[in-house]
Amino acid sequence: MDKDELLKLPPVLFAPFLAAGALTAYFGGGFAGGILFAAAAAFTIVFARRLKTAAVCSAGAAVGAAVMLIYTCVYSSVILSYADKTVRAEVKVTEVTSDSGDTRQFIGEMNLDSFRAAVKLTGASEVEVGDTAVAVIGLERADRENEIINLAKGILLSGTVSEYIEIKRPVYTFEVIVEKLRGKMINELSSAVFGDDRELALSMFFGKDEGLSQSFSERIRISGASHFTAVSGAHFAVLASVLLQLFPSKNRRARAVFSFLITPFAVVFFGASISVIRSSLMFFIMSVAPLFYRRSNTLNSLCVTVCAILTFMPQAVLDIGFAMSVLGVLGAGVAGPAIGTKIAELLPDKAKFVSPIITVFFSSMCAVICTAPISAAVFKGVSLNAVFTSMLVMPLLAVGMTFMLLLGITGARVFAVPVGLSTRLIVMIVNIFGKSRTAFINLDFTGAWILAAICAVLVLAAAFGNMKTLRKCALEIAVVSTISIGLMVYTNETRCEIRFVGNSTTSAAIVICKNSADVFVAGSGVGLADDISRCMREHGAYNIKTLAALEADFSGELALSELSELVEIDSIYLSDSISGISAKIVDKKSVFSVNGITLASAAVSDSEASADIILCHGSIRRSPQTSAKLAVYFTNTKYELPENSVNIYRLRDYRVVLNSGSAEVKII
Prior knowledge:
7-stranded mixed sheet; alpha/beta; 6-stranded mixed sheet; 20 helices
């Protein structure tokens, strides 16, 4: 199909405006109704004038605004009216999110006022996936701090099960059979592969990443391979591609029937996330199209899938995974191959054999560029390593997943060898690329996502244009990239501030000036290695000059060891000697000072602690009191905090700007 004809297809025109209309209606607040009216009016005018392209675009915007208004003003209002109520309802368990002995957290579906609602529930560990339970549940509004994340998943309420009245266990439902097969595969993998290889395999194949160490998880992010450890559309695409090799490419009917059968299986196996649904639906459309004498096209199939999902699930437009999945396919499946083909045409005949490598390289690079706006807005940066790690990891993932299926189905340990080998190679790749922190480009300056979006648009323009357009877009991308790097360097060189990370038991103040950091840890520091490294990564700091953890004991040894694996540390100050850690020993009452500002650690019940900034840790049982100029808490308590305090649980991007261009740290 000609490129101009492809760009004029109704789904290709309709999908982006559908998404734009839904986003505008959600963030437009009180103006949402006006937005819908304007889009509908525009559609009426252009349709009357027979401007087909404009009519399709305006219709997409109108439909997007309409479905989002229906979801937020009608459906959400009904569901949220049950907040702070206790109900007796029948709940179907769709997913177990965590299990801690006697308590289990899971997602359950129930009917509320004739609407089907997904609810986050906590209760005794008596239910499994597929069970239907009649229970007494106390409902409340889902965590407001993650409101958009919950809304994107269709979860508006959370609740606590106070009593199970009846539990119905299905015997041979489709979900139960697939869940048992999944559990069997997990058990076979856990008993056949060990160490980091096993934990990485569990996260890649089943999305179970709780066993990954903090240091390795951070290396995964820096290497740009984090999307492989969260089950997504890429996993479904790999599985489907592998399984379809069982059928000859000429046997279109058999492949289409198999695609129809595998789609629901894969959705249940990988979990019904929006990105998996997107991938499975797109795969189904592309596989079935030849049966109706239609050529399957990646862009058209992607847009049809987006239209179908957002029309019936408009909240999916807020899901980061869905956005990354769609933009990733746009880059890797549409823009990359087109640009790679153009570049390959410039090669001399003797070098044509490298054309497949060029196509793979540009597919990976375009995927990074097209997803960069989301990465800049949400993750504060882009890993340049992702271009290479994706090329290296994807074939290893395909090999590992193929033999993982054989291992789980047959139980033959011989298949564990290639699974372990492919996983070991991925671990090596992550460790190599994950140590180069400078390859992560932090984009935390204002407007970074806009510049990234301009680059993404230029990449698409280059893909659909001619060679002249490609050269022009390449030059413009180079200019925009240079501006972005210039702004990044300027922001990093002029940055001198204190940022805070923590959890309910310990916290840290991170003084970032230019490309270095000084860190003061309050409490033991257990569980902070990942947070400290992430904060430094997002804001352009590569090493720690001074680390003071005066309250750290042997329980904090693991935290300091993990942090030292992630970040180079010049000097460590402790109040007691810890085996295996080379540090300077100082008095526990020593004062951490930066540019004359003193920092101290205190329990929330300690009202006598004195310092300019006090990091408070521990459980809050009543409204706390403090004499500090600034008290820093990490808590979700409902108690009122003092006026001279900040809660970094809610204000996670809080910072204290230092006037000086450099940090003068002293341990007094």
